[in-house]
Amino acid sequence: YGIEVLGEQPGHGPVVERRESYRIRVKMWLNRGDLVRWERPWGFLTQAYLEDDGATLVTDVRMDRAFLIPGLFYGMAGMRIGGTRKLRIPPSFAFGETGIPNRIPPNAVITAEVSVLAKRSASGCTIT
Asked: Is 0.70 surpassed by the pTM of this model?
């Protein structure tokens, strides 16, 4: 897919499964190393918040292509809970030709660091 794993710290928990919900921590950079800062969190918004002045997002997401950008969806495949991966994501699997106004320029290559913190149950409780 053109998604490159730049580094990984394997987790020791169960493997991430499609269509299940997880608490993740995500930090993104543009190709030149500029941090992507968010004005507001995304994901299951009742559980989402920002850290580091908007540079780090902690949120609950469902592991599917409709919920995550393709680069995160495919890049998280095979991860274990407790693990972290640093990914280089091409524009076609990130924010594409449009980008996000005032945040991510069109056709931007994104570097993302994603950590899977926990699995979430249907009731929203953390499963450890």
From this structure: yes
Residue (of 113, 97, 114, 115) closest to 33 by Cα position: 113
Tell me how far apart the alpha carbons of residues 112 and 73 are, in angstroms, rounded to a whole number.
12
Residue indicated by tokens 């640093």: 86
Q: Cα 101 to chain center, whole Å?
A: 19
Q: What are the DSSP calls for the chain, one per residue?
A: ---EEEEEE--SSPBP-TT-EEEEEEEEEETTSPBP--SS--SSGGG-EEEGGGTEEEEEEESSTTTS-HHHHHHTTT-BTT-EEEEEE-GGGTTTTT-BTTTB-TT--EEEEEEEEEEE-TTS-EE-
How confident is the model over 35-81, as pLDDT tens digits? 999 888 877 667 789 999 999 999 999 999 888 999 999 999 999 99
